[in-house]
Amino acid sequence: MSIPETAKEIHLVDYPTGKPTPEIYEVVEAPVREPGDGEILMRVVFMSVDPYMRGRMNPHVKSYIPPFQKGEALDGGAVGQVIKSNSEKFATGDYVVGYNGGWREYYTGPTDGFNKVDPSLAPLSAYLGVLGMPGFTAWAGMSQILEPKEGDVLFVSGAAGAVGSMVGQLGKLKGCKVIGSAGSTEKCDWLTGELGFDVALNYKDYANSTELTKGLSQAAGKGGVNCYFENVGGMHLEAAINCIAFGGRIALCGMISNYNDTKPEPGPYNLTNLIGRGVKMQGFIVSNFMLLARDFYAEVGPMLAGGKIHFRETVYEGLEKAPEAFNGLFEGANTGKAVVRVAPDTA
Amino acid sequence: MSIPETAKEIHLVDYPTGKPTPEIYEVVEAPVREPGDGEILMRVVFMSVDPYMRGRMNPHVKSYIPPFQKGEALDGGAVGQVIKSNSEKFATGDYVVGYNGGWREYYTGPTDGFNKVDPSLAPLSAYLGVLGMPGFTAWAGMSQILEPKEGDVLFVSGAAGAVGSMVGQLGKLKGCKVIGSAGSTEKCDWLTGELGFDVALNYKDYANSTELTKGLSQAAGKGGVNCYFENVGGMHLEAAINCIAFGGRIALCGMISNYNDTKPEPGPYNLTNLIGRGVKMQGFIVSNFMLLARDFYAEVGPMLAGGKIHFRETVYEGLEKAPEAFNGLFEGANTGKAVVRVAPDTA
């Protein structure tokens, strides 16, 4: 395959205040660098947009991953084909997925965090979703923090998202009663239909945490919520803590409702419930559990092959749509995993 | 020993709003009931006042223990002598400690939660403190939730209290750098003096969580706080979460700063730190770990006998002082364990 002299990448022009606006991005035509020793050149087919990227747009937050730099290309997960390899890890022509390489048409760089994928087992984009970081995130939160038991009541917010939809399905396979929240009738229908959730709550029907508490309490039944998988924050967390069972577990994966706040939101008013009810609330990011990636593939691969796990994707066409795809995460515009098709999927 | 016909007990006349006032209590002269089958009659020597009792004064809170009933005697931990036993568990003359029997001069009832104590090993009152529920609470939170390692930075709030003073000493014995907060110079001097804490912060020197964060951050050093034992809530929790290390642990034992609030306080504004830093925050009450009581005595008994654990008590004289002793918990009036001497310690 020929290597172009230049290609497009999306730069961060300025850090956003509140919800990112189009002005903070710039599409730049930049030279395509030849790979150095141990490096690869990848033609990106799909790039991922994920909520954690909003955190990298805050320059002053102490977090597990450094902020994006102004005037440089953004970055993130991507799947594509190796065009040229100076690495023993991959051959030219291999399809690979990595935590880098997004927000651009071509990636040149090291192979850390890249793995070879098999396009005959699942569509390439699935390696950014159900078989990628979101799927692994769901699996890790369930298996390492919530540890749901048969008969437990599991509540997951952001249930129609890439992570949440996987959480709920894993819960059903464990024998849980699964309650999900999402932001539209269509999403709720998908949850209780194809995905087999027991109850779906459209959170837009609930004005505040008191109302949501009533709805969740009714859905959970007398024993309350044993496991809560948190993607949203705000009134969702407060309602879940109101309904949490004795000995309950809460996995904090994300709080997307807060990510665009220009001033910090107060935490829930009912944290003392965690004391009286002996509740564990644990935050995590998937890299905390990276050593378990093999276990994830071993468990989830066969589930997917066996048709026990379903997934949807919202596909945006063309690199220039990446900012729109990203904002879709905060606007509830996406169902399942949101990806951007950067080049035709030739696999 | 002779059994009196009547004795004093303290009744709850009304549920408090905010800080309990003297009017909510009534000292009642009530008949002393003969023990039934399997029951004991105990002459109370010391009764305990503990922060959790404030929760039992809220009639509508769903918690691990039912609320006190209006017009009935209050209840709580007590240590005393068995005057008459219809139980095979104890003989007349035995000294016993139990989770019931407080707020009265004589206790008649079942022996659940009562254990025999040896007054020659430690003063009777110690079985309500360092060798009792607060000591066990400290040990359980440390060994079962925080799991501090040598070199970890441990922060404990309410550090001059019955639980906190034990937490810090256990931390020093584990090889931690220990930081405690308390509300007076005298208390802080005790922490860094007799108890061997590395740093004591007088929280009254800090106007808000931002200020306390600076003080704590400086005390903790660059690596931050690995373990936080929470007794206070409010700005303490927010400051601790600001300073928490990657992979940190937080044991939620109490939030005494909130217990008299007439409207709920918001939670900390920085809970998303728990996600990015992979932090576990676990609430608990000591009864979650009751099966480990034997391990507690096996570990802490020799520490105490060997002079490795120090403790102080604030002793109030006479049953009528119980309401004052109780309010002292919220006013910072007590150092170490607060107890009420109900009868002369004849042991």
From TrEMBL, chains A, B:
Residues 18-340 form the Enoyl reductase (ER) domain. Keywords: Oxidoreductase. GO terms for molecular function: oxidoreductase activity, acting on the CH-CH group of donors, NAD or NADP as acceptor. SMART domains: PKS_ER. Gene3D superfamilies: Medium-chain alcohol dehydrogenases, catalytic domain (3.90.180.10), NAD(P)-binding Rossmann-like Domain (3.40.50.720). It comes from the Bacteria. PANTHER family: PROSTAGLANDIN REDUCTASE, PROSTAGLANDIN REDUCTASE 1. This is NADP-dependent oxidoreductase.
